[in-house]
């Protein structure tokens, strides 16, 4: 049966747009069609739409990328309030969030990938004074510091680094492996806010026996007749920068500053 012109057009479009997304996700592998020498090359080949792929095969590859590789269906349950109700209870300064996520091929297949989040408040702004010009400038700084071809990886560990400067909107509590990593993360976040660190504000602590205080693996819990792995406190893992956004009081949806995860399509910095 002859291939329809509609499918030829759609396949051409997907190979330009969707394949670009796959290449971005597997940016450590060249943009040429990979072989199966490594598990990561095999995963990329399983996701790329090739010149002669059928409609069914292309659909299967896209589902493989979304659900097996990106695991987009694994959204953690959040304890909180709907945005409208929370905003009615408390007014707040604009807040900038940075979200990090463990690579799917590094995550435990029986659990959601580990994540990380850092945030600060814009203490010199309100919902009515902040401008799109300021948000656009901030978005470009996020891309410069955390994105591009060398997107940032946060190596989380069992040490705790605290950086507090309330008048400037900073109250960071970062799990890291060493003080050098902590300073690097803090420096990058503050650069987004056109600021520089005052290391007198940094407090660093580590347990005498980190693996004893915070075991890397725990036992199972019997919940409703099923064995569930007990949550791990302070896991050792690497989480990759995904996106940054700004929450503004009175606005229901966040302003997406920069997104390398392709979860959002309206980020200010591309």
How is the main sheet built? 5 strands, antiparallel
Shape: globular
Separate helix tally: 7
Number of strands: 10
Overall average pLDDT: 89
Unreliable stretches, pLDDT < 50, 5 or more residues?
none
The fraction of residues in strands falls at: 15-25%
Helix content: 25-40%
Total count of domains: 2
Walk me through what this model shows.
It is built from 7 helices and 10 strands. The chain has 2 domains: 5-69; 83-259, no CATH class. It has 270 residues and is of the alpha+beta class. Strand 7 (220-223) and strand 8 form a beta hairpin. Helix 1 packs parallel to helix 3. The strands form 3 sheets. Strands 1, 2, 3, 9 and 10 form a 5-stranded antiparallel beta sheet that branches. It has a 3-stranded antiparallel beta sheet with strand order 5-4-6, covered by helices on one side. It has a two-stranded antiparallel sheet with strand order 7-8. It starts with a helix and ends in an 11-residue tail after the last strand.
Keywords:
270 residues, alpha+beta, 2 domains, five-stranded antiparallel beta sheet, three-stranded antiparallel beta sheet, 7 helices, 10 strands, 31% helix, globular
């Amino acid at each position: 049966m002859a291939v329809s012109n509609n499918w030829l057009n759609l396949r051409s479009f997907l190979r330009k747009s969707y394949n670009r997304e796959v290449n971005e996700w597997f940016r450590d592998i060249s943009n040429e069609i990979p072989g199966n020498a490594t598990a990561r090359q095999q995963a990329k080949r399983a996701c790329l739409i090739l010149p002669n792929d059928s409609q069914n095969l292309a659909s299967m590859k896209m589902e493989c990328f979304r659900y097996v590789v990106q695991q987009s269906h694994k959204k953690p349950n959040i304890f909180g309030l709907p945005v409208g109700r929370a905003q009615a209870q408390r007014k707040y300064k604009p807040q900038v969030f940075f979200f990090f996520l463990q690579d799917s091929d590094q995550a435990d297949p029986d659990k959601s990938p580990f994540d990380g989040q850092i945030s600060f408040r814009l203490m010199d702004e309100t919902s009515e004074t902040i401008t799109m010009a300021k948000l656009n400038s901030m978005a470009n700084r996020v891309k410069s510091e955390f994105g591009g071809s060398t997107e940032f990886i946060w190596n989380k560990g069992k040490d705790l680094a605290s950086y507090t400067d309330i008048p400037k909107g900073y109250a960071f509590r970062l799990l890291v492996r060493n003080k050098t990593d902590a300073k690097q993360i803090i420096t990058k976040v503050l650069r987004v806010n056109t600021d520089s660190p005052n290391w007198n504000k940094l407090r660093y602590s580590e347990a005498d026996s980190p693996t004893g205080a915070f075991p890397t693996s725990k036992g199972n819990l019997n919940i409703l007749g099923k064995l569930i792995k007990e949550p791990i406190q302070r896991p050792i893992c690497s989480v990759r920068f995904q996106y940054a956004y700004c929450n503004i009081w009175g606005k229901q949806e966040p302003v997406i500053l920069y997104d390398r995860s392709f979860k959002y399509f309206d980020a200010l910095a591309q």
